[in-house]
Amino acid sequence: MSLCPPGWLKTPMGNSYAGQLRTTRFEEVLHNSIEASLRSNIVVPRPIFSQLYLEAEQPLAAHNNSRAENNDEDEEDGSESNSPPILYQMKPPPEGCCTTDGFCQAGRDLRLSSLASDPLDVLPGFMLVGLKSPSLPDSLLVCAVDHRFLPDERGHNALLGFSGNCMGCGEKGFRYFTDFANHINLKLSTQPKKQKHLKYHLHRNNQGVLVKGAAICWRGHDGRIRQIGPRLLEGHVTSDEQSSNLLLLQPSHTPANYTASHTNGLPQIADTPHPLTNGQNAIPPIPQPAMNHSGPGRSTTTGTQTNVGPPKKRHKGWSPELASNVVSENTVKMSPSSSTLSSSTAHSSTTNGARLDAATPMSSSQRSSTTLSPSGLSVAVPDQLLRTCGLQPVIFKGHGPLPRLTGNVSEVLVSSLLQSCYLSSQTLPRVYQHYGPSPIQPLSTEMQILLTVYYLVQLGPDQVPLIEDLEQIFMRSWRESHLSEIRQNQQPQTPGSQGRHYGIETPPTLPGLPQHLSLPYQQPLTPSQLPWLAQLAASSCGVGVVVFGEHVGSLAQGLQLMFCKLLEGGFQNTNYVVVIVTASGQETQSCVVVTGKHQCRALAESMFSPSEGLREINHQLSSGETQELIQFCNSLGQDGDMDSLLDSATLDSNEPSPLSSSQESTDDKSVKKTRSPKDSHSPKQRVLATKETCTEYSVEWREVRPIQLAVARKLLSHVCAIADSSTQNLDLVSFDRVNFLILVPPSEVTFQQTVLHLWSSGVLQELGSLDQECASQRDAERFVVKMDQSAQVQIDSLIQEAHSNSYTLYILIHDHAHWDISSASYCNSESGLGLVDQLLNSRRIRDAPNILILHVTSFPFALQTQFTRISPYNEIHWPSSFSNDVDLYHERTRYFGVSELLDSTRSGGSLPLMRYDSSFESMAASLEERFPKLHSAVIRTTVLIHHYCIALMAVSGRLSGSHNLHKHSSVETLGIVQSLLSAAQQCPTRHGHMVLLRIPSLALAAWAHRRLSRVRRQLGLEEKFEIILGNPGQPLNIGQSFVDQIKIWLKVQEADWVPRTYLELEALPCILILSGAEPLGESLPRSLKYCDLRVISCSYLQRTTLEQELGLAAYLLKAESRSPHNPGPGSDLLESDAEKLSSTDNEEEEAQDNENSPPSSNLPVQSSPDIGAKATPSTQNNISPKAPKSTKASTPSPSRAQTQLPAQSTSQAFLYPQPSFHHLSQSQSQTYAQAQQVPSQNHPVSQINFQSYFHQVSHPQLQPPLLPAQSRRHPSKSTSSGSLSPRASSPHLNCSWARGVSRPPSVLLPRSLYDIITANDGSGLPRCTSFLPHMSVAWVSSFRPLLSKMMTCTEQSLYYRQWTVPRPYHMDSSNRTEGRSDNFHPRRLLLSGPPQVGKTGAYLHFLGILSRMLIRLMEVDIYNEEEINLNAREDGVQYSPSNVLWPNPEIMKTLSFDYTVHDPKYDDISFVYCPGYKPVSDGNTVHQEDVCLRRRTTRIKLSKYAAFNTYHHCEHCHLYLGFNPRYQIYESSLHVFTFTHLRLGEEIQLYFIIPKSKEHYFSFNQPGGQVEGLRLPLSTDRSPDSIKSPIFTPTTGRHEHGLFNLYHAMDGVSHLHILVVKEYEMAVYKKYWPNHILLVMPAIFNAAGIGAAHFLIKELSYHNLELERSRRLEGGAPAVDVWPFVILADDSCVMWNAVDLNVHTGPVEHAVSLKQVLQHMEACPDLSHYGLCGMRKWSSRVLTAPNQREPFSRGHLHDFLLLNVDQSQNVQYDQNRFTCHDVDFTLRLHSAGLLVCRFNNFSVMKKQIAIGGYRTFIIKTKMTDVPTSVGPSQYICAPDSKHLFLATPAQLLLEKYLQHTSHKLFPLSTKNYEHPVLSVDCYINLGPEVTVCFVSSRPHSVNICTTGLLFSGLLLCFADTFVTPSFLKNFTFLKGATLCVISEDRSSLRQTVGRLELEEEWRFRLSDEFQTANAKEDRPLFFLTGKHI
Questions:
Q1: Most Cβ neighbours (<10 Å): which of 440, 823, 951, 963?
Q2: Longest dimension (CA), the chain
Q3: How confident is the model at residue 1781 (pLDDT cuts 50, 70, 90)?
Q4: What angle in degrees, to the nearest 10, is found between the helix axes of 467-482 and 445-458?
Q5: CB-based contacts of 635: which residues, under 8 Å, 6+ apart?
Q6: At 973, is the secondary structure helix, strand, or coil?
């Protein structure tokens, strides 16, 4: 046949290549198709186009003869041997870091596609290398590697190891490839190897783009890339396969009736898999959605199969089943910035089919500028084109220059949208340039034209072409056609991975695209084939699409022919004319002319910007062009004229012309006059009318929902994360209070709404911004700013205040942040836009360290671009309330939003909450054809208001013959009005519903308000409901009678109160006409029942625009209203992730649940479609495709129905029985419908329920299974969605408002928007999600993937950040010039959540908890306890004057030593016996573990001299904490210091970790050599800028919470601070305190107590003192002048205080610096006479105590000690002690004759730290190694017995045993202070019931006088040689007194007994010998008890 192109022949083997034509069957197929078309009675005949092509591929199992080369070059990568790979576990990433593939852990992009054009900083000696990640097989990652570790071109000379840098975040110095692999998120299952993953060299090409170069030649690895030619798999094609593909593809938004016309009599193939095509530009079979698809036009496709054959050289373990897992080496990934902006700007400027800068009607002055054709070619536009044809044709430029248009050019529109789409789809990303001469080519011109024709064929008669659809078709075809050779080895993606892989992937079938529309690479589509193939494709839709191509020589000729036929009426049924020019020797040219009236109008209006469209509407209204339309609508045909009918009902004056702007003031006056009758009612009458109360109504304003609290905490967590980061961008500790300013759009209602939330939340009182008593709602207005010209002054004032108050944190909350994102440089001051950019992005705010910006929006897409100022880590997304059927937050409300509305359209068996009105659409469409010059918004608004007026007239019953009026309105409108009027009548207090009427044009809204008000007045319905005009720039205007009613409901007492927000209109029956170009954040009350969006614009199809209109209907339902196991449509239960973008559709389960649901005939029907709709396939345009095939409806008797009617709302029950539509034939249903039009004669017309059977004609579902009537809503305080809710009530509520408040509102949409919104794209998401997110942003490239249904909100944000860029007039467009690596504002957050969900309440609560946290950060819990065991002195002598500065040693010697311990922490220890002291009361048995639980603390604000933990960051502490520019952080050295301890007789080896910045405190034998000791000052040194005493702080378990930052406490002076840590904690302390000196104890002390730490400090200090004296002597200086003092400080000392003596007011305590305290003590003239000095512990009651008059005293010292290591050299700390070591040391120090002095005028505050510390004891067994409940009696056991051994030090077990059981061990000593236990040479705690008398056995020691004292026991603990029998004979014991001898082993125990001759006076038994419960290897302690004879 001549039409058959050459080469399309049958193969010799009998199998056809994919896409080839069977010439032997062509005539037969053509003949059969023509015959079938003639016999068919459907609108669109079955096409033959797809019959000419065969299946491209068969499943892999059917082609085991086929083989394809495998270009995977990693054959040897798995292993060098045949051994299996070693399993490898990657190191878990740090918490909070990025784990996205292709990004480093710092969140920076590493992909070559993203970095190709960026300037990269490569260090000398490093090379850029392409790294291959197994999780990103189609992309390369960029890294810099030292060239020494890479091989040369021969594979030699590569050093072992690795050295590389990250090119994303810039981190350098990776020495191990394993660490580098972790950093770049190289998720591997085997050990990372550089040979395996470093693949290619990278270099710059001539254009400066980074491209892939030669492969790195690793030895043993073949670096060559094996290129293969495309091969096609052969296979047999059966007739069944052919017949299943003879169907046209439906676009995703094709309506159901159009889809049904293709499916009659055809087999269902929904479950048939469709393999991909390996060819190029082949025309494949066309899939057809099945009959049971889930939505209108929803594609039902299954997963695709990639036909991958075995490799040439078989891999180990290869099998055909695993072929799909082979990853291709040549897989290409899309670049987010691959195509330049210049090449994609033309396409990027489109917004859903509308160019913002699209061509307007051309005038004669524009001809020269718009001419793109060669000279001499022109086309004359006929005159009177618009009048003759009734349309304004739209010409889309295609390929080639468009001829110049002359003549009547004003009636023709020219658009370059299609041309831009062509260019964008032919611009390959730069990522493909590194392939060199690659077969990857863009789509050919011919293929683009053919796909365009095919797309136009699929469009329905009422559909408008969308460039987004066509663009996706191009991309799908390109992927299918030109990536075959790459996809052969590409691993197919699962649905779960689609959302997280942003490269090229094959999405499911796209709208309007045949599944395999491609040709073999060997056979491209030729220009000669294009015309007849295009005509063949167009023939399937009749004359809907006409192709001029065979006899057209130029575009001018084709356009001239088009105009001629258009004037002749030849295109009456033609919507599109495609002109194709394929002249030989010339490039193919094309253009598309839109000739459909509906399409032309829609495209023309879409070429206006939103502001231009509103101006056009205003012009038409003011010029009087709409008079004819108004007159036409007022005419009711044979029923008369609407105005005359109204005049007959009232004698009011006629309404002036509503379309004249000059009469607007008169209209407003007339409207106000209509209120006078109702305003004349007296208050008494109003009270009488409402004396009955509604028990279901209640108001709650002060409730915070749990999910709001969770979001507020997430906000606080992100703020803390900024403060904790190393960037030091926010110093929270430096702020002591919070101030804020909320910025809202210029809407008066939104402003007042935010003020109301703020005032009712209590945040102002909590923050101290307002006085609690005088705060009013007006006072809160200064914290909220409308973003108009007045905002400049308030923000400037805030900036000045922030600069002057550096200790206040200012929060700027930008609410509704997506509203104004315009650049200030592109906006003039009159427009009111650009203020956000001018104010919030100014340098003054950006650089202010105490200003934090929080953007709050429901639609964050426009703020998530490549140049965004908000870090992805600073985004907070609203969480889901449910996860895996678990209620996460136990909410009493459940959110019902946009996704739930969409799900309601797909839920079978229920009337969808979102629908369209077919009757209204039909009337509007007919009027649009009648008035082609008027804007569609004018026509649709006029029709809608006309319907409302007619409905009011029909339902009111005030007009005679009103039963004939209902046919002039739609059933939907009638139902709305009837529900509005009847609802208030059922409630005693007249609660009702709200009807929202959305009219964007302010002028149209004002006219609608006047028109409806006039009709209401003339019908006498002024007291029934209110009509409110919602103008953003004006406050609410409510009639006084309604205001009085609201005041009664809300119990408002103020006389001048008026409602200012829509939320305060709760339960008011009203019609709200909401105007404005877009909603500005106004929240609606819960009484909203109908959301009428039938007149919103359909021209601007961006995701933000659509979702914010639908967001008006968002709702909070009561959670109990639906079972968690039956969540209903769109429930969050279907989300497995708390941040899912959309839930998975469980269609089968939903359908089954709906079918099994009980009958819901008593549940309300929201509305109904056209009353006159007929049950024909052509009019069933809103039948849910998921309706059950059969429905059994119960039919109540007429009497029963009539009986039930008065008790039910007319919107809640059917008046007539409703048989299923599927049980009626077409004629029966029509007859039945006609019968229903006759109203019942037994009821007045006003009682007729218009929601009768007729809703079943278009909606044959069951009534909606809505929520139970008794359910109610409990909203939160200050939620953005309202805060009103009814009380719990009975199941049968009388108040219709209470019933309706638990049901979401119904939404009415335009038909075109409904089709788009309810359709799904290829990923299963709603079609609108793939639209451009906002008109101010543009797509980076057409080569982008679709949003995936499995994406979380975080992944969705990353998607938009990768694939969108701001336009020049976007405020973030200038952010790119500030640098790519650091363009995020560090103090900017983004909170996003669904509309009306409660974001306002969340961020207001965030302000409160942030303020509380700052106060908490500035306060600490200080121990505030009175000293214990106080006893007033008897002598009453004042030894030292109160104002003396320093103690006098001589006077101090005259003071008696106070043996009693007064520290409250020792409330549970034994009394120390002191003669003359009488205990106040007997001790109570208190366990030491319980002390910390009951100790008293006080919250005290930190002073400026406080010590801080590691969480403190301020600019002053940078150098102190290690941020020294001279030294690199963590630069420190480890030094060993060894000394010999004479007493122990062995060497002690310690480790010093010394930072470089602290080395000057040490002396070394040589620079950088061994440490010789600490440098000590001289006693005569005096310096106000230094502290002479080294500070030692023992610590354990408190690396984060220990107070080691003494910079502020020392007031910045130089000091030596050393942390004493255990060996196993060395690393963690070094990490948190890199600039502190660490003294690491030997490993043998890892289990030791605080005694060991103090022992080592003291011995080290004395040894160092001797060394320093030796060095001084060698230098000639006196040795005695070396400073001998050191400081032993607890790690919880936080602040210090001093007492000022005031003669008039008495002693006053105030905070001082530690520097002041230490310098004062060090300046004491006689300090060297004292062995130990200290200070008292702070208490708020100490100054009032009578015994605190002495400035100095002698007694026990704790926590902060100044120790003289020279004088105390012979007194050591007991290194074995865990408890009471300081009491024991002080007693021994005093007994040695040394002076102990306490400075009572100084005090130390100790912070309560519940973590770590030496008082934390863990008792655990050796078997379980976990803490166990072991009693004290089990701490000891008999020697050689079988006992449960404990893994606890023996000394600790002994101390704890003696503490808890000594009352049994020393029974005579219990509560017997006069007869204490004698303890020799040590003090051990024997519990609070036992008194201990300490004596020292040392010669010349100072002991108390024991003459005449009888002791009740003797305790000998490790008695040394100073204890002799003669010494013990000096003491007298009671008969039966107890002896306890403790030794290290049994042998020494017996020796002690024998040496001391104890058996002479003490009786011992064999059973009285015990040991601690330790194993033998743990060296237990032994003790023996006996009784005195």
A1: 951
A2: 140
A3: very high
A4: 130
A5: 641, 642
A6: helix
Residue with tokens 């007006």: 778
**Based on the number of CB atoms within 10 Å of its own CB, is 1658 exposed (0-12), middle (13-18) or buried (19 or more)?**
buried
Pair of tokens at residue 1867: 């029974």
The residue behind tokens 């929803």 is 298
Amino acid sitting at position 1113: A
Alpha helix (H) residue ranges in 1498-1632: 1518-1521, 1626-1632
CB 1260 within 8 A of CB 1182: no
DSSP string for 1333-1381: S-TTEEES-S--PPPPTT-BHHHHHHHHHHHEEE-TTBTTGGGGGG-ST
User: Whose structure tokens read 């409402």?
Assistant: 690
1355 three-class SS: helix
Find how far residue 1523's CA is from the centre of its chain: 33
How far CA 1643 is from CA of 1550, 1646, 1648, 1816, in Å, comes to 10, 5, 10, 19
Residue 1539, beta-bridge partner list: 1548
Burial class (CB in 10 A: 0-12, 13-18, 19+), 195: middle
Distance between CA 1211 and CA 723 in Å, rounded? 56
pLDDT at 1493 over 60: no
> What is the Cα–Cα distance from 1942 to 1968, expressed in whole angstroms?
12
DSSP character at residue 1239: -
The predicted pLDDT at position 31 comes to 56
Q: What is the pLDDT of residues 191-235, one digit of tens each?
A: 888 888 888 899 888 778 898 888 888 865 443 333 333 333 333
Asked if 1116 and 1086 touch (Cβ cutoff 8 Å), the reply is yes
Q: Which residues contact 1157 (CB under 8 A, 6 or more apart)?
A: 909, 1262, 1265
Structural element, H or E, at residue 407? strand 404-407
Backbone phi, then psi, for 695, in 5-degree steps? -75, -15
Q: How far is CA 909 from CA 903, 972, 1126, 1169, 1185, in A?
A: 12, 19, 15, 16, 10
Residue type, 1389: L
Tokens of 208: 């400066």
* E strand spans, 834-892: 851-857, 875-877, 882-883, 886-887
Q: Which residue has the tokens 């009951």?
A: 1494
Q: Are 942 and 923 in contact (CB under 8 A)?
A: no
Asked if 978 contacts 987 with a C-beta cutoff of 8 angstroms, the reply is no
pLDDT digits (tens, 9 = 90+) for 858-910: 999 999 999 999 999 999 999 988 877 778 888 888 899 988 888 888 876 67
First to last CA, the chain: 133
Contact 1973, 1846 (CB under 8 A): yes
Q: Burial letters for 1206-1229: b for 16+ Cβ neighbours within 10 Å, e otherwise? A: eebbbbbbbbbbbbbbeebeeeeb
- Residue 1488 exposure: Cα atoms within 13 Å on the Cβ side: 22
Q: Does position 1858 have pLDDT exceeding 70, yes or no?
A: yes
1241: left (phi over 0), alpha (psi -120 to 50) or beta: alpha
Minimum mean pLDDT range among 769-773, 1066-1070, 1424-1428, 1441-1445: 769-773
Alpha-carbon distance of 1265 to 1145, in angstroms, equals: 18
pLDDT at 6 (0 to 100): 39
Q: What is the pLDDT of residues 62-86, one digit of tens each?
A: 334 433 334 444 433 433 334 444 4
Contact in structure between 777 and 1294 (CB atoms under 8 Å): no
Element (H, E) at 179: helix 177-183
What is the per-residue burial (b if ≥16 Cβ within 10 Å, else e) of 1265-1302?
A: bbbebbbbbbbbbbbbbbbbbbeebeeebbbbbbbbbb
Residues with Cβ within 8 Å of residue 1947, at least 6 apart in sequence:
none
Q: What is the pLDDT of residues 1585-1640, one digit of tens each?
A: 999 999 999 999 999 999 999 999 999 899 999 999 999 999 999 999 999 999 99
Alpha-carbon distance values, 719 to 809, 1399, 1515 (Å): 12, 17, 18
